Amino acid sequence: MSDLIRIVYISRATFETAPAANGVEPNVARILSTSRTNNRRNGLVGMLYYGDGCFFQCVEGDRLKVQSLYKTLLKDPRHRELKMVASESIKRLSFPDWSMKYVPIDGHMKRLLEEHGFATFDPYRFDHHLVERVMQLMQGVADPTAPDIEARASAPARNIDCDEKAITARRCPTGSGIAKWALAISVLALILSVITLVYVMTLS
Ligand SMILES: Cc1cc2nc3c(=O)[nH]c(=O)nc-3n(C[C@H](O)[C@H](O)[C@H](O)COP(=O)(O)O)c2cc1C
């Protein structure tokens, strides 16, 4: 069984933010492209947020591979002040379909920051609770840059409990499934009523 870990780190971009092309800052788009190719090869998964000149990234996978990537990241001149905000062993990957999910700046993130008294995305001032909330939010937000499978994987969660189970079981009971059972039970009850009625009428 492989030894899996999750790390979450923050950093500051060293480049000036340029106007977005196709919804993503061009430097970030290049980082995403390399990340997705390499991570797929190395069996790593993760999520990346970029806002107000700061990165917030979560990476999961084999311990040695994640640690090796982090050493590479420390040397990357496109960011500085890397700070690990979480590192833990995990039993399974939380988002196996995302080689590197890109999470855009959106109203949900802005509202979350406002709720905690932040006017900008400043992860260096986040406490443990806010790091967790940001992670949860990142998991539920759709990735506008991801084609097919990654886009499907990043569709907003309808039900958190169900979603957690679906991550491990890869399935999720739907409303239509429950409706089918209810219909079957109703039909059965109707048939039993008719049989009882016919029986009573035959007796009388
Ligand atoms: C914020 C940030 C996040 C990155 N995330 C990843 C990543 O998840 N996976 C990865 O392989 N490279 C990532 N990189 C790029 C690496 O630092 C490094 O440039 C790359 O792994 C080199 O790959 P190459 O040898 O194929 O060019 C990231 C860089 C930055 C600045």
Describe the structure in your own words.
By secondary structure, this protein is of the alpha+beta class. The chain has a single domain, classed as Alpha-Beta Plaits (2-Layer Sandwich), CATH 3.30.70. 48% of the residues lie in helices and 20% in strands. It has a 5-stranded mixed beta sheet with strand order 4-1-3-2-5, with helices on both faces. The longest helix is centred in the last third of the chain and has 29 residues. The protein is elongated. The termini are far apart. 22% of the residues are buried. About 14% of the residues have low confidence. The site of flavin mononucleotide has 17 residues, from helix 1, strand 3 and helix 2.
Give the helices and strands, then pairings.
Elements: E1 4-13, H1 26-42, E2 45-51, E3 54-62, H2 63-75, E4 79-90, E5 101-103, H3 107-115, H4 128-140, H5 148-153, H6 160-169, H7 175-203
Parallel strand pairs: 2-5
Antiparallel strand pairs: 1-3, 1-4, 2-3
This protein binds flavin mononucleotide (FMN).
Q: Overall 3D geometry?
A: elongated
Mean pLDDT: 84
Tally of contiguous helical segments: 7
- When the domains are counted, the total is 1
Uncertain ranges: 148-176
Short précis:
By secondary structure, the protein is of the alpha+beta class.
Features:
204 residues; alpha+beta; 7 helices; elongated; binds flavin mononucleotide
